[in-house]
Each structure stands twice: as C-alpha cells, then as structure tokens.
Write a structure and sequence with these properties.
about 60 residues, about 0% helix, six-stranded antiparallel sheet, mainly beta, 6 strands
C-alpha cells in the first residue's frame, strides 16, 4: 500500500499527516531521535481498535 505522507518535525516531536483509503485525513504523533523515526496511528475496526506502528531510519536524504 502506498500513501502520500507529510512529516513536520519540531525538535524531537513529529507530526504525520496522510489520507486513508476513503480520503479522510489522519494525523499521527511520533518522535525523531538521532536518525530513528517512529510514529503510530490507532484505527477503529469492527473487531476493535488496531494500533499501527511505523519505524524507520533517516540516512542522508533517504528514509527507510
């Protein structure tokens, strides 16, 4: 699945904005510590809440 994502960093605080499959905007909070980046989103599903955690590393101008 591919998403366009907007990342805004203020110090170690990270705000992530994207749209879900229905076009609704999702905002998530996360952190940037050194070259490590992490954020999470919580989705409501028919089976209850589902937490999605995204983690990666920033190397130069690339993020994986």
């Amino acid at each position: 699945m591919t998403r366009d994502v907007k990342l805004v960093q203020e110090g170690e605080k990270l705000t992530v904005t994207m749209k879900d499959r229905r076009g609704n905007e999702i905002t998530a909070q996360g952190t940037v510590k050194g070259n490590k980046i992490e954020w999470f989103m919580t989705h409501s599903t028919p089976r209850g809440e589902m937490k999605v955690v995204c983690k990666g590393k920033v190397e130069g101008d690339t993020m994986k």
